[in-house]
Structures are given as structure tokens and as C-alpha cells.
Amino acid sequence: MKSSFRMKPLKIGWASVSLLTLIRAGHAGESAVPGQLVVPGVSSGVLLQHYQGVLAPDANAPVGARGEHKPTMAQRAEQGRTLRVMVKHFVLSEPLPGPAAAKAQQIFTAFEGRQLGSADVVRVRNLLNAMLSREMDALTYARLPQQDISDGIVHFEIERGRIGRLELNNRSRVSNSVVSHYLPSNDVGERRNLDALAQMNRRLSALPGIGQAAVSLAPGDEPGTTNVTANITPASPIEGVLLANNSGAPSSGANMVGAQVALNSPLGIGDRLQSTLFYAPPGAQNAVGQGGHTSFAALSYDAPVGYRGTRGGVQYNRVDYTQGGPGDLRELFDGHGSADGIRTYVSHPLLARDDANVTMGASLEHKNLKDSFFGVMSRRRLWTGGASVSGFKAGQLAARPNVVRFDAELKAGQVQVLDVGINDDAAGDLSRSLISRRFAKLSVGGEYLQLIRPGLTFSLKGNAQFSLPRHHLDPSEQMSLGGAQGVRGYDSGLSTVDQGALMSTTLTQALEPIPGLSMSVFYDRGNGQISRSNIAAGGCGCTIPDNLMTVQAAGVGLDYHYGSKFSVSVVYARQIGAVPENQYQRRRAQTWVNAKLAF
To answer: Looking at the record's lineage, which domain of life comes first (predicted)?
Structure first.
């Protein structure tokens, strides 16, 4: 039995950029632009569009500070003046960065060497400002000062707007002293801008205890400044989910119920205390798992480390199980066991944008595992360390939104076999060879989501694991090819593998008559090598036929969700091709049910 479990956090980072989001993007009605990908966070471009008049002085207004009382070029145009001048060149008050400079020159080239009126020059300024808002800081803009252009030279002054007063309106469970550390710096020489505010919003919104962070802008106290108020709304102090599914191990309890509860910011620092409980009761199992049961408990605590998005935490897991089956066979087999582990971890965002994210992480873990069969106990102890990277990128293909997700982890460790159990041979050679050994593995995964048309989404998902040395991994470190998260036509009783690959492709259609209902068709495929060690291959270093296996399945699914509170999915999958040699499967098809109720 695989004895490694990981908790799924209640607070989701990029989960809003998901299959559901892509479906919604095509059915958002008046709340979204058709075909536009909905992503969390604040956008500098949107803020600039709404508060354009606040961020920059009106170029059409007279410059009273210099005592100028003559109308500006724009005012002359509005007054019907038709003066036209041969414009030779446009000149900026300061050089722009490479990409912005090239695009500015493209704009200028289209108008240089022509007879231009005041309205034409204002148009050049507007085109220039639109480019600056895309390519540079959102508060950077070009101003057209009062000037004499009889020599054919038009001057633009590059202005860099400033954030003036920054106020805090915090109603969340995270204390003001903590939230204030996330506000953009006001140190001398540092510029606060909309990009810094957007980053502040992302970091604050990710903290447990905060529902949403948003900013409101108002005219500043000085010319060229904007006052900002950071509005922090609270999240629920307690979040929870009730779960029921049939995804457990067939022989020790496939039908499971559970709950996950999280306390948001109990210490007021953006921390989180979370617990998870699962139980497969013996009376709710089928004939294969009759009398079997499994209980799983996990407790974790994580908190910010600094104020730049880094988080660290510790997690404890415990699982106990008893194998089920027909009465006489169950008593003869006498299968039972337990595992507990403690894991510490840290994560840090390398890139955090509304449309892209890259996070790196590191972890250390210690596990104790016990399994008993036929009254003979096997005990192992594992120490592991790993480094990981994960992220996503939102984009478009043929004007339709898509999302690419990826993750990878390199893990190394040592397993110490305290009691080999029934795996020992008469001479004890196997026992001595397995007493202590090192191992390493690489796990990679990825997913591509593409909106084909409103309501229709394509998904391609895959993951793989590679055992780097030729060592047989402990079952807790192996990869599973079957079950609800693998090839869905097979139950999780398939042998786990040292290395292998899974691929799944899915087409999902939203069923418009019933909001929240969707149907999918899919194909799954898995390949794996059960053991990489010479021992499992008979000591010859060769590959035996039943050491490799390929499994395939196809099926349909029906999903329904009611807002974010309730969801249920039913999946029917049927095997394709023959069952691999020495792999027992009671059925040729599987039905998976998963229900969640948030509170």
C-alpha cells in the first residue's frame, strides 16, 4: 500500500485559471469579454484606463504655474484653428528603453515629413501614451508642452507619475502591522507605481485571512501625484470541505468520507492551521474490501517567511489500515499496517504576474512505515529531501484563451529496512542487500488547457517519474498508474511502478440548459516499469516480460457544481486492451464518484 499522502490546500493560488474558468470565459455574458481569460489580481492596464484623468495632468489645460495664458495646441484645434506645419522630427525629453524606443520611432516615422495640424500632433501624443502604458511603467506618459514648432521640431516631455499618499483600510484578520510590510516602499529614491501596487495586491490576496486586496485611486495633494487607499477585506476565519468518494484502495476501503478544516490567520500574521481526516468504514465496502478499513489524519501549519511571498510550514501525516476480503481469507492474510511522517517545506515565488507564475520549493521528510502480512512484520524508515519548481502561463491561441501548467521535483533520500518481513529469502541475502540504500527520482508534470469555442474546452495532461539509480523504490515513493488519478479504467490495485508515464486527453462541453453542468469524454494511457533493480529482475540485470506494463482506458464524465459550495462528478471508464500479466482486476470498467460540500 502506498503510504505517502499530501494535503490539498483550501486556499487556491492559480486555481481560478482552471478548466472551469476557461468554460466560464465563454459564458460570462456581460461580466467578461467573450474569449478573454479571467485571471486573478489587479491589472495595471485596467487601472490606468479607469483613472487616466487622475494619473496625468490634463495636457489640454493651460500651464498656469508658468504664467502662460496662451491656448495650447489642443485648445487651438478645438477652437477650429487650422494651422498646419511641416513636422520634420519628434523629440523626447529623455531616451526610452530599447523596445519602447523602437515602437516610439515607428509611431514618429508615420507622421514625420508631413504637414500636420494641432489635432494630428495630439493624435501622435495619444498613440505614444498608449504604447508607453503597454511597454513601460503604467504611470509613464508623454506630455505635449506649450512650444513653438515653426522649426518643424515637436518636443514631448516624458513624465513619470508618482504615487502620493498611501493609506490602509484593513478589515481582515491579518494585523495592520503585518499588512503594512507589504505596502510599496516609500524610501527616498524608490518609486511607487501601479506595478508595485499590483504586486502588493497579489501577495496580500494570497494570505489566509484576507479575502481580497484592492486599491482605489484619487487625485493627489500635489500635481502629478495620485493618492491610493489599499482596501483589505476579510476572509472567513474558518473554511471547510466535506468529501465523499470511492477512490480508496479496493482491499482496505475504497469508499471513503472525509473533512478538511482550515483556520485562517489564527495568529494574525497570515498563517494557516489545517487538518484533514479521511475514513473508510468497514461496513461500507464491497466484497473485495469487506471488513477492511482505512483512517487517515493530517495536521499542518504554515506561515509567511518575510514579506515577499515566501511561506514555510510543517505537516504531520498518519494512516492506519486493515486489509479486507472474505472472512476466512481475511483472517489468513492478516494484512494491516500504519505509516506516519513529518514534513517541513518552504516555497518562494520567482515570478508572480496575473498571467504567469513560477514558484520554487524545497522540502525535508521523515517517514516510518509498517506492514504486516501473514503475521510477519515489515518495517522501514525513510529520509528524503527535494527541490521543486511549478507554475503556469496564461495566453491565447487563435484569439481563444489557454493555460499551460507545469511542475517538476527532484527528490533524493535513503531507506533503511528494519525488518524485511515476508520479502526475505531463506539465506537472508535479500535482507542484507536491502538493509540501507539511497535512492533518487525525478517527477515532472504538465497540463495544457485550451478554449476551443464558448463552452468547449480541450485538455492534455501528463506526468512522469524516473528512478535515477537502478534501485527498487519503496512503495511510498513509487508511482501509481491506476485509480481515479491515473488510468481510470483500472482500480488502484495495479502494481505501483518505479518509473512510468501517464497521459490523459479530455474534451469538455458545458451543458448550457443547466448552469454548472458539463460533460466530458477522455482517453487515458499509462506505461510503467515495476522495478528498476536487478533483484526484482532475477539478479540478471535483464528485463523480464511482466516487469513492464501498459494500460489504457476511455470513458465519459459528468460534472456539476453549484457556485463554489458544492460539486459532484461521476466518471465511467472502460479498459482498452488486455490487462497486463500478473495484474488482477475484478472488473473491466470502473465508475468513480467524488462529491464536495464547502462550508
So the answer is: Bacteria
218: closest CA among 209, 227, 210, 229? 227
Helix 118-135 / helix 98-109 crossing angle, nearest 10 deg: 160
Upper half-sphere CA count for residue 451 (Cβ side, 13 Å): 29
Average pLDDT over residues 78-98: 77
CATH 2.40.160.50 in the chain is located at 19-38+236-598
Q: Which grid coordinates belong to 355?
A: 498571467
**Residue 298 to residue 4: CA distance in whole angstroms:** 11
- The pTM for the full model equals 0.71
Residues of the chain with CATH 3.10.20.310: 57-160, 163-234
* In the block, residue with C-alpha cell 472502460: 574
142-162 pLDDT, tens digit per residue, is: 888 888 888 899 999 987 767
Q: Please identify, in words, the CATH class of the domain defined by 163-234.
A: alpha beta
Classify residue 123 by burial, with Cβ atoms within 10 Å: 0-12, 13-18, 19+: middle
* Whole-angstrom distance, CA of residue 414 vs CA of residue 362: 17
Residue with grid cell 486527453, as numbered in its chain? 505
What CATH class is the domain 57-160? Answer: alpha beta
Q: How far apart are CA 386 and CA 440, in angstroms?
A: 9
